[in-house]
Design brief:
Length: 286
């Protein structure tokens, strides 16, 4: 990917490029962010919507490029975001709706799109303390599931989402969309099974694994005594023995009806809201 960006500090205040051609090389690079390889190489990703971009900037995420539709020109909030982008050494592109549709692959695209630098936490950055809950996902495959889990973890007050093994990318367009902005609020870590097992031992947290063969009802676990890592299995094959055997508890959510199992994101939501039930109250809603 070509480096169209300036170094932070090298300000060109007020610079806005107008782009109407789909063949523009900057637009080509932005469109390439739909590929995982290009996201990894550039260390960036795309987020759509003015509110999301404003929230991300407020949370201190670094913006590389702001793209907005001609129709959004002059709107005070868009102008503010554009000024912030330029002040941080980023590019601002004013584009036609056709270009915006092709960048987001949508017929009715959002008026504003931000290209941000990816941010990952390391396992050793996570030091769970009392009342903290973390989610660990074994080889999560589905981008919509991961996005929904990141959003749910944020809403339940969890501290981080840990991706164990080969997982779908939290910075794909589909996942970012499904997080509804929570990708900017929830720390995400990726690690191997061995790294996770070594870290869980020294973390001081209890690991509560979910399994369709679990003998323990998930509502009977004491979630207050220690920080908790809720460990969830892969959508197709469930949790492998190497992870299930290392857990402190292996629990099941009782079911009725014909369904074999719950959807991964739904099961994660059930677990998180039970594990944090004693910590969640309507009085504390923002
Ligand atoms: N065929 C898979 C299996 O045999 O485990 C089904 C996996 S299920 C779609 C995905 C994950 O959601 C499971 O690995 C588990 O972590 C969780 N899950 C779904 N339903 C559950 C239940 N009733 N009790 C406990 N965990 C459940």
């Amino acid at each position: 990917m070509t480096d169209h960006y300036q170094k932070p500090g090298a300000r060109r205040v007020g610079q806005v490029k107008e782009v109407t051609s789909l063949a523009n090389p900057i637009i080509k690079d932005i469109k390439a962010l739909t590929n995982k390889k290009d996201r990894e190489e550039s260390g960036t990703f795309m987020a759509e919507g003015l509110k999301l971009v404003i929230d991300a900037l407020e949370l201190g995420w670094s913006i590389r490029t702001l793209v907005y539709a001609k129709a959004a020109k002059g709107k005070p909030l868009v102008e503010q975001v554009a000024a912030k982008t330029v002040a941080h050494g980023g590019l601002v592109l004013e584009v036609s709706e056709k270009v915006l549709s092709s960048v987001t692959r949508r017929d009715n695209p959002q008026m504003v799109v931000g290209i941000f630098e990816q941010r990952w936490k390391r396992l050793d950055d996570l030091k769970p303390s009392q009342n903290e809950t973390l989610v660990a996902l074994d080889r999560v495959r589905d981008p919509g599931n991961l996005g929904t889990i990141i959003r749910t973890a944020d809403a339940a007050g969890a501290s981080a989402v840990i991706l164990v093994g080969e997982s779908t990318d939290p910075f794909s367009l589909e996942t970012v969309r499904a997080t509804m902005g929570s990708v900017f609020a929830m720390p995400v870590v990726k690690c191997s099974v061995d790294e996770f097992l070594a870290w869980q031992k020294r973390s001081g947290a209890q690991v509560v694994a979910t399994h369709l063969a679990g003998a323990v009802d998930y509502r009977t676990v004491d979630y207050k005594k220690k920080p908790t890592i809720v460990l969830m299995g892969n959508e197709r094959s469930g949790l492998p023995d190497v992870l299930a055997n290392a857990a402190d508890r292996t629990v099941r959510i009782p079911q009725q009806g014909r369904a074999d199992s719950l959807n991964l994101a739904v099961a994660t939501a059930v677990m998180l809201f039970e594990a944090r039930r004693h910590l969640l109250s309507l009085d504390e809603t923002k």
